[in-house]
UniProtKB/TrEMBL annotation, chains A, B:
InterPro entries: Homeodomain-like_sf, HTH-type_TetR-like_transc_reg, MT1864/Rv1816-like_C, Tet_transcr_reg_TetR-rel_C_sf. Signal peptide: none annotated. This is TetR/AcrR family transcriptional regulator. It comes from Nocardioides bigeumensis. Residues 97-242 form the HTH-type transcriptional regulator MT1864/Rv1816-like C-terminal domain. Gene3D superfamilies: Tetracycline Repressor, domain 2 (1.10.357.10). Pfam families: TetR_C_33 (PF13305).
Length: 269, 269
DNA sequence: GCATAACTGTGAAGGGTGTTCACAGGAGTT
DNA sequence: AACTCCTGTGAACACCCTTCACAGTTATGC
């Protein structure tokens, strides 16, 4: 018997394998949260295995790293999705603010993990496919971690744009280099986006990049402890930044309402 | 003979010691720039020593790390000072833009080193004095690396404010938590600054923090490769950010002139 | 059912790293 | 000259990653 159940279900061994696969990542993240370093050895020992055994699943320490990183990305996006879905679908402004706030909260709450994914930049080409073993979970969700982010916010951003058509800079207000590169990129995802946004595509995409940079920037600074701890803990700096982002995205009118979502200590519910 | 020269000059041994001390940091940074890891062992070997010998100078790998970090900070600030002094003292706007641009350029050009100092957060109290051996260079310049930065920009910022008195938010436009904390901080450096800026002290300091966060944020993102490489290499994103910062600091009128300093590919000299 | 193949784990071994310690030899002091 | 401090070494221990030959189990095929 190859399949335990009906047709093409995963064989017993495959399930087994997947289970330990997951356990590896789990244990690694557990160690991370516990303040320890993620060493192949530590993970193995924690699982009751010898280090070489892990090589049956993961192709070395770097690959394990990549694996954990990817899973963390998935988790963060999941947390953001939850926050987003607490607001109605026809209110993308609230959804964006909520997601961004959840992003920051996750990052601050899961410090070590966030630092890890941030410290390892978008894998400069060397281990792009090394960490994807044949039986790895969903082969379809093998996308780079960062793109999960941009996809997530991209969708929200698009809906916001559809609804509000906030003013974007025109082609000639932008630096020429950026415009030509994006428009002439042919089939790149960037070019697709530009087309999607229609006439002022470049301008809208530009705003998106700016907004994304600001959000990522502020969260990073806060998590890495490079800002005044008071400003971080109170969240004032974050809210101010979010306000700036929101303003550039035509949310200024709504701010009384939105800032509460961003954690403003108002007396509303 | 204890002193080689006249009175209280450093003894021969002390000079010797200081020399190898410096060499350690030098070699470490050399390795860093060469793409290698900074290992105690590697540094020792490179110097023709055995690893344990380094313990006569540096209290372990972490301390060496801190030492290198500190020196890097000093270098960055020096580079910024050079850029600043290329503009007249009575033009703080140009000086600020030049310094910020130099900061970014240094960070992008010295990648590995910048990443290192950024990855190690403001030493959470554990190794604050451990790495300062008795004979360490100038005991007076033992200030934390980050404070070198804020001091540097703080001075520029103050001159800019003196000159332009750009509009700052008033007390009641800020979140209450921030205001009270800064004003009631007594003898803290923050409180001093608030007083220095007079009536709207809190508002000005707030703008300073915002500007600093933005600059640090964008540079970090670029260096860590978390932004579109095209936007980074062209510098467009950086200039856009600097423009925003400048605008919030009353430099908008001057921008035609200032953006060239920030690397705008204009046809001016 | 039994041989064969595939998978999963172990132990040993080699190459890194940081760190401590006892000890030797030179530099400076008295 | 005797003594003290400084500087460096070698050995040893504790981690780490990684490869390899080998054993045990599990599934597959004849």
């Amino acid at each position: 018997m190859t399949t335990t159940s009906a047709d093409t279900g995963p064989t017993r061994r495959e399930r087994q394998r997947q289970a330990t696969y997951d356990e590896i990542v789990d244990v690694a993240r557990q160690l991370l949260r516990g303040g320890s370093e993620v060493s192949l050895r530590a993970v193995a020992t924690e699982m009751g295995l010898t280090p070489p055994a892990l090589y049956r699943y993961v192709d070395g320490a770097a690959a394990l790293n990549a694996l954990v990183t990817r899973q963390i990305f998935v988790d963060v996006v999941a947390a953001m999705a939850v926050a987003r879905d607490e607001h109605p679908q026809d209110d993308p402004a609230a959804q964006i603010v909520a997601a961004a706030t959840a992003f920051r909260a996750w990052a601050l709450g899961n410090h070590a993990e966030f630092r890890m994914v941030f410290a390892s930049p978008p894998t400069p080409g060397d281990d792009r496919h090394e960490h994807s073993f044949p039986l790895l979970a969903g082969a379809d969700e093998c996308a780079e971690g960062e793109s999960l982010f941009t996809d997530f916010f991209g969708e929200l951003f698009y809906r916001l744009w559809e609804q509000r058509h906030f003013p974007a800079p025109s082609r000639d207000q932008l630096e020429p280099g950026v415009v030509t590169r994006w428009e002439s990129a042919g089939e790149s995802p960037k070019a697709d986006l530009v087309r999607l946004f229609g006439d002022d595509g470049v301008g809208v995409l530009w705003l998106f990049e700016l907004a994304w940079a600001r959000l990522y920037g502020i969260v990073t600074l806060e998590v890495f402890g490079h800002m005044d701890p008071q400003l971080t803990s109170s969240g004032a700096l974050f809210r101010a930044t979010i306000l700036e982002i929101g303003t550039s995205l035509g949310m200024a009118d709504d701010w009384e309402r939105l800032r509460v979502i961003a954690g403003y200590p108002g007396d509303q519910a």
